[in-house]
Amino acid sequence: MRHEDFPPPTPRRGPVLAAAVLAGVCLTAAGCAGDGGQGPGAGPESASRSAASTSSPRQSSAPAATPSPGPTSAKPAPRGPLTGRTVVIDPGHNPGNRDHTREINSQVDIGTGHKECDTTGTATDAGYAEAEFTLDVSRRLRTLLEEQGAKVVLTQDGDRPYGPCVDERARIGNKERADAVVSVHADGSATGNRGFHVILPAAVNGDGADTAKIVAPSRELGVRIAGNFVRVTGSAPSNYIGDNTGLDTRDDLGGLNLSTVPKVFIECGNMRDPKDAALLTSSGWRQKAALGIAEGIGSYLKR
Hints:
By secondary structure, the protein is an alpha/beta fold. The chain has helices spanning 15-28, 44-48, 101-104, 130-147, 166-175, 215-233, 254-257, 274-280, 283-301; strands spanning 72-73, 86-91, 107-109, 114-116, 151-154, 180-187, 197-201, 205-206, 209-210, 247-250, 263-270. A 7-stranded mixed beta sheet has the order 1-5-2-6-11-7-10, sandwiched between helices. Strands 3-4 form a two-stranded antiparallel ribbon. α1 packs across α6. The radius of gyration is 17 Å and the shape is globular. Mean pLDDT is 83; it is low at 1-17 and 25-69.
């Protein structure tokens, strides 16, 4: 299942050209975090910044039975170019959601209506769960950002039995007054649908949601993440969502509608496509994915 599920659009063509355009955005944007960086397939920089979780993919196991009282933050970060900045990382879904169907199926207000609290997420055909993927990438991302001095908060760290619900995920970023929030996901579309895309908030106003102040900065955050993701991972933008731009705007996601700070989602690839699944289940590629996202966030925050 996809996060806050929706049917896949019709496939489109031209991912190679779009990838080149996105990479060009990264290379030409002022303050883009690519100075001295390494391109797709380069390993030394990634290896030197390895995150805490590097284990091989496996079936998810249920988390501890006692929920965490709140979001989790790592030890104080060293000083660096992101000192004084707060980033909230939102690992999509939760490995324990599958054991708490009643709770995650409860309806919550998303600003434009009501949806389920959360979903179980998708998985590869071999059983590698999206919830495990998102936690792994998010932990790696936390390490990379903390090395640059940022304060990093995770909405969940495998430390609660399920959730949090999508409305609470938004509130965590708002409460932290985050400079940027990124929700990490992987898609569950049809075989042959490949590539990543970044989801941006639409202009929403009403029923407790007002994204007017975050639409523009969120788009800039998303563009910079997309450009760096192409450059670092070598992955092309989605061939089935976003007209080959790697960007998609939506008004039906509570995590975006209820945010008062710049926020985007990234679908790092399609877990149901064998070629994308081979990347998503690779520890080395997940490190590149985290690095691409981190450099996009850094580019945005240092602009």
